[in-house]
Design brief:
40% of the residues lie in helices and 17% in strands. The chain is of the alpha/beta class. The protein binds nicotinamide-adenine-dinucleotide and uridine-diphosphate-N-acetylglucosamine (UD1).
Length: 337
């Protein structure tokens, strides 16, 4: 298939592009490079032997999107493009709603005009807010606890409404739990521009000596060791979830959502200890106050994705820790180094 990947030079997008190319699909990336670097395309090419086309520009620019659709005529879109920093979204909500929600609406309008009506959307477990029941299934109540989460919820609602308006649309919202890990080659991984907000990139930067110690946000949660529990899922497993979604898309009408996670909950201290053990590196840490907005535990029951998409995560926590460390130790400054 010819696939348009918005946000395809980003962390999850780049790994998905590799899996798409390796499965024989043809890829064009649309990315404005606000949070990624063009050198990613060279890395994709080193891994796969094929260089995807990169169109540099914004999903909210209708003329540009038109040109890309006219030139490449994709059959399906995988839509990663979006801003994702929770704290920044609290400080700059309008920028987040403009970029993520308005950008998606412009993209959908142009896709409709070109009669391209299959789209996979990067949603997030954040749409479950502070989860009341574990494991989290797709029918759990939805709520937004910050503007970033608000953009994901609103986009899902737009997709639901558009699907109702015209039954030719097919939308798959994939709600990722906690993406982690890197490509096994060590050539691609997560490259946060600022101080990492997420735990594993913070751990790798401590391990490589860029930061002094990990701050563990609270050890008084109602969890086995008191630290927060999350469902970490390898980025290559996530990438393969997108392949599964486009390959099964003709079987699913309208809008539907699937949780992508392993179903295994891991605490902050378990992750730090596993990382140290499998990589043989010290990770100093200190316990500090809870981070506001954090919930104690979040993990999914991945049964629906397995049943409908035939997808299951195959990488364990040790693989996520090894691959993240290979990426960080071979590229101490990320793509900029
Ligand atoms: P990322 O920042 O690495 O990738 C997003 C890409 O989109 C970047 O390359 C950026 O330059 C591009 N982009 C942003 N706005 C754009 C616009 N208006 N036009 C064109 N390109 C634009 O992030 P990621 O971790 O790869 O996440 C991809 C998607 O998955 C995002 O939508 C994110 O919200 C979602 N998601 C991420 C996580 C996570 O923890 N990484 C979890 C759940 C959901
Ligand atoms: C965070 C976001 C969520 C987003 C997700 C993926 C918040 C409140 N939530 O989720 O909206 O969808 O990232 O991008 O920001 N931790 C530490 N020290 C750190 C970093 C994290 O102890 O330096 C702990 C956290 O308290 C949590 C766990 O590690 O228990 C995972 O944190 P993180 O990687 O930020 O993911 P989430 O909190 O699940």
């Amino acid at each position: 298939m010819k696939v348009l990947v918005t946000g395809g030079t980003g962390y999850i997008g780049s790994h998905t592009v590799v899996e798409l190319i390796e499965a024989g699909h043809e890829v064009v990336i649309l990315d404005n490079l606000v949070n990624s670097q063009p050198v990613v395309v060279d890395r994709i090419s080193q891994i796969t032997g094929t260089s995807p086309t990169l169109a540099v520009g914004d999903i909210g620019d209708p003329d540009l999107v038109d040109r890309v659709l006219t030139e490449y005529e994709p059959e399906v879109v995988i839509h990663f493009a979006g801003l994702k920093a929770v704290g920044e979204s609290v400080a700059q909500p309008l920028r987040y709603y403009r970029n993520n929600v308005s950008g998606t609406i412009t993209l959908l309008e142009r896709l409709d005009a070109h009669e391209i009506r299959k789209l996979v959307f990067s949603s997030s477990a954040t749409v479950y807010g502070d989860p009341q029941t574990l494991p989290i299934t797709e029918d759990a109540p939805l709520s937004a606890v910050n503007p970033y989460g608000g953009t994901k919820l609103q986009i899902e609602q737009v997709l639901r409404d558009v699907a109702v308006s015209d039954d030719r649309w097919r939308f798959a919202a994939l709600r990722y739990f906690n993406p982690a890990g890197a490509h096994v080659s060590g050539l691609m991984g997560e490259d946060p521009t600022d101080t990492p907000n997420n735990l594993l990139p913070y751990i790798t930067q401590v391990a490589v000596g860029r930061r002094e110690k990990v701050r563990v946000f609270g050890d008084d949660y109602d969890t086995p060791d008191g630290t927060g529990v999350r469902d970490y899922v390898h980025v290559v497993d996530l990438a393969r979830g997108h392949l599964a979604a486009i390959e099964t898309m003709s079987e699913h009408r309208g809008f539907d959502a699937w949780n992508l996670g392993t179903g295994v909950g891991t605490s902050v201290l378990e992750l730090i200890n596993t990382f140290s053990e499998v990589n043989g590196v010290e990770v100093p840490y200190e316990i500090v106050d809870r981070r506001s907005g954090d919930s104690a535990s979040s993990y999914t029951d991945p049964a629906k994705a397995h049943r409908d998409l035939g997808w299951k995560a195959t990488h364990d926590l040790a693989a996520m820790c090894r691959d993240s460390w290979r990426w960080q130790s071979q590229n101490p400054e990320g793509y900029g180094g």
